[in-house]
Amino acid sequence: MIKKEMIAMLLAGGQGSRLGVLTSKVAKPAVAFGGKYRIIDFPLSNCINSGVDTVGVLTQYQPLRLNTHIGIGIPWDLDRNVGGVTVLPPYESNTNSEWYTGTANAIYQNIDYMESYNPEYVLILSGDHIYKMDYEVMLDFHKENGAEVTIAVMPVPMEEASRFGIIIADQEHRIQDFEEKPANPRSNLASMGIYIFNWNTLKEALITMASQHALDFGKHVIPYCHEKKMPLYAYEFNGYWKDVGTLNSYWEANMELIDIVPEFNLYEEYWKIYTKSEILPPQYISADSVVERSIVGEGSEIYGKVYNSVIGCGVVIGADTVVRDSIIMNQTVIGKGCQVDKAIIAEKVVVKDHVRLGVGDEVPNETSPHIYDHGLVTVGEKSVIPSGVSVGKNTVIFGVTTEEDYEDLWLAGGKTLIKAGEQQ
Question: What is the pTM of this model?
Answer without folding.
Answer: 0.89
